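Recall that a protein's primary structure is simply its ordered list of amino acids. Everything else, from secondary elements to tertiary packing, is in principle encoded there. The following example makes that idea concrete.
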Amino acid sequence: MASSFKRIALLAAASSLTLGAASQAQVFEQVGGGERRTVDVITVTAQQREESAQDVPISIGAYDTQALQNAGVRDIKDLQAIAPGLVVTSTQSETITTARIRGIGTVGDNFGLESSVGIYIDGVFRARNGVGFNDLGELERIEVLRGPQGTLFGKNTSAGVLNIVTVGPEFEPGGAVEATFGDYGYSRVSGHLTGPIVEDVLAGRIFAVEGHRNGYSDLYVEDDNGQLNKVDSETQDYWSVRGQLEWTPSATVSGRLIADYTERDELCCSATAWNYTPAGVGLVNSVGGQVLFPEDPDLRVAFSNREYDQLVQDWGLSAEFDIEMPIGTLTTVTSYRTWANERSQDIDYTSADLAYRDKANNYTDIERLSQEVRLNGQWGDLDWLVGAFYSHEDLVLGDGIRVGEDWEAFLGRSLTAGSVPPLGTPAGVSVVLSQLTGGLINIPPGMAYLDGQGVNQDVYNQTADSWAVFTHNSYQITDNLAVTAGLRYTRENKDVYATFDTNQPLACAAVEQAFGFDPINGFIAAASAQGLPAATISSGATAIGSICLPYHRSGLDANGYDNERTDEEVSGTIRLTYDLTDDAMIYGGYSRGFKAGGFNLDRQLNGPIGPDGYTNSDNSFAPETVDSYEVGFKSQLFGNVVQLNGSAFYQQVGDFQLNTFNGIAFVVESIEEAETYGVELDFYYATPIDGLDVTAGYAYTNTEYTEVNTGDPLVDALQGQDFSLVPDQTFTTQLIYTRPVFDNLVANASLDARWASEYNTGSDLDPEKVQDAFTTVNARIGLGREDGLWSVELWGRNLTDETYAQVAIDAFAQGRRGGAGTSLDPRGTASYAAFLGAPRTWGVTLRTEW
């Protein structure tokens, strides 16, 4: 805390310097007798009104078409290159993509866990970050709103908002075609047409894009004959179309209607060996599998015994109307979206056949209808807004984790490792079960698990209804002093109904028969009654947990889930703004963000047990809240030659929703208290060199789990430690240079770079999952006609070919830490794989506009 207040004091001191700088503006207003270039001010809708980004009293990163195009931003992950403090990662599939702002984000491999960073595209909320991960098409601007934005943007914005605005229809006829080709067989072809349909009344725009990439990882897939065949992994194969209408039937009514459709059919994502132990490799090799060892992530080589299909179908409709009324402007936004995904997965990420998901049984369907109404106006010095919001979401998720033909031998060797050199016996499951039960359970080797056993089909049906009323107002107290205050009441009801169907392996069926539907605690009770030593009981319970994994247990089959929860919250904001001069202001205030509780759409084996299994398993988790305190300044210096903005923040997080993988299963817990604090700086400079603009950004973020009382030692061990996936520092910079050359030609060049300090990529914070500090550099150079008739650009991304982990994970069942298995325990035999960021890529873009 003390250090956070020191940083706030330093930032306040920095803001006072802007006054002295502003007083020198006249020195820089002219260079060589000519008019000095200035920094363009971006108009944003961060407060649901159009206003200058420099007038909004919150920390904003605003990026216009030129900045986005030169940085090669096609999706939200690309945005990291120029947005300091933003972290976007993907894991098993690009549909599982998570954004974090100021250290806060939700880790999750299923869609019961919603996002802490809201993604809005043309005013419409995307249900999850992964749902918003697509080619964004033609971009007008992207606003990164840092900190809670729950007053105006609603739930699931407890960390911030990515507000994405695409290019709309124009009444001036025009069009463009763009073709990009690069290494790894990359191609992307897009184009648009726009113009009037009814003069001055109705304009249209249609945009289409198709993209392909062969993939930048070599995946060796073992076929049914035991042969390894190399295929490309991390491929791209998608197409998308977006149609828009701009309708202005009268001087007081305007509307924008949008329809879009996207399909993706890709192979993603493989995990490479990141940090393996000989024991982990030995286990895989013992059943004929392969994993790269010694590991070398730079080679981008991965193994599996099946490919990773990623199928997505995404479409939606939206209508936004503004109606000018005597008291103000009435805005209504109506949307309907549907998103469907099927994906397969080799869970162990080796060529051994251990565990997998088939796409036929692993799917997610989301349908969402939303309606928002806002009325805003101005009465004297009061700028006011009131509104209401409603959404209905239906989510259906299917899951089917199954074991492969190598699982019994693999688990048997793992369970008896050390007792029969070097890795135990493939009949170990039968041996251990007989030992644990004094010979009462005797399963013939080869019959404990059969290929394809596990989850036959789990289906989760979740319905969520959310409504809210809100107000957001600004009052000009004096010419220099203004207060902004907002309030929102949100009520959300969720209910989940789930059915479970287990094709139970004989080993787990026998364990449940001997020790009950909760076999671990049943074994502990039975062993304790027999007076067995504590060490024997502990090792036996661990073995039972491995023999009877959650997706082998039958305790949920009879009763399933039928759970409901309702959350309600009053959130809001209050801020003061003081204009030091016409070109510099300071602000400070408080905001509260809210993300509703929910249900982990996974097997949660807890609660009372009846004669046929669990009767009331609880898969719910509590709502997440963020109380944020922020001070900052915004300035336009030297006649707006320079813009310098800064902020300092302190955020308290209540019931942080954490999802962590322990190598066997996912554990969802609510962290009672956590905090983040830091500083952010944004710098824009129109240099004296005609056509050269420089931008830069810096973010310092400190995080800590301050109070963790879950009762789970794996999670409680996180108390006092940092969040995962949060670099202490990030620095970004972008240089854009444009100038005329020869007759009617324009040359352009750009360079952007991002540096991130060291951080841990694992939610359990195992030291082996640390990603060292790294830098990525992108560049672009081009030449074209001034009228846009043609242009050609050469570009490269990650020019230094940095190899870095997006997320490092426990390799499934391939070794474990000593003791309780937390990051505080000795490493033991634990092994790790990683989902890597993109390597160096390069290409050429051809464009024509008319």
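The chain is about 10% helix and 50% strand. The longest helix spans residues 2-22.
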